[in-house]
Amino acid sequence: MEKNVPREISRREAARRLLAGVAAGAALPWAVSAHPIWKHFADEHLMERAEAVAGDAKLHLLNRAQFESLSSLAEAIVPGSNEAKAAGFIDLLLGVDDEKHQKEFARSLAALEAESSRRYGKGLAAISAAERTELLTYVSGLAKDDNGETALREAFDNMKEWISGAYYSSEIGMRELGWTPDRVFAEFPGCSHGDSHD
User: 36: burial class by Cβ within 10 Å (0-12, 13-18, 19+)?
Assistant: First the structure.
């Protein structure tokens, strides 16, 4: 079904469409609708603010080291995340989120940082792309009830949800889901990254 749409899609419009697709189960069927990122997409005021500061290099909650770790993690989980400015968008959302979600995010990122340091003697931003892939393959393969590893898998799942939401709510992510300047699909074809990190 073809519709006339603007030549470009704003983050606010992309988030609105993505949220509707997730609610209908047509986009990102693995998305956890209770995750904090999805409530942000329903906040029109926040989405307007995100557009206003899109080119802003200022960090809103994360420190520089956390931001670098998040950027490298985002690119490993969803290639193209850096071009979509996913880490900056996540930082903006976290800056207005409640303290509980901010702490959960910080714990998740710290858990993956700690695992990277334990395995490779370096943090996420300092390890090679191959090491990041190896780490994420290991962590994503953990069963949620593995003895002592539940927290690490939960940390990965939390980060994956933030990153995927931020990526697919960008114009780049929407294009991957089928949006074009001339038409949109009645249904989203789904993520092309496969199930390599779920």
Answer: buried
Rounded to two decimals, what is the model's pTM?
0.77
Give residue 129's domain range: 11-176
Residue 95 lies in a domain: yes
In angstroms, rounded to a whole number, what is the distance separating the alpha carbons of residues 121 and 136?
Answer: 16
Look up residue 47 and give its two tokens. 């989405």
Ramachandran category for residue 148: left, alpha or beta (phi over 0 → left; psi -120 to 50 → alpha): left
Q: Per residue of the chain (198 residues), what is the pLDDT tens digit? A: 444 444 577 777 767 776 666 555 555 555 555 677 877 877 777 777 766 665 667 888 899 999 999 999 999 999 999 999 999 989 988 888 889 999 999 999 999 999 999 999 999 999 999 999 999 999 998 876 655 568 899 999 999 999 998 998 888 888 887 777 665 444 444 444 444 444
Q: Is residue 119 part of a domain?
A: yes
For residue 64 the two structure tokens come to 């520089």
* Tokens standing for residue 44: 């029109």
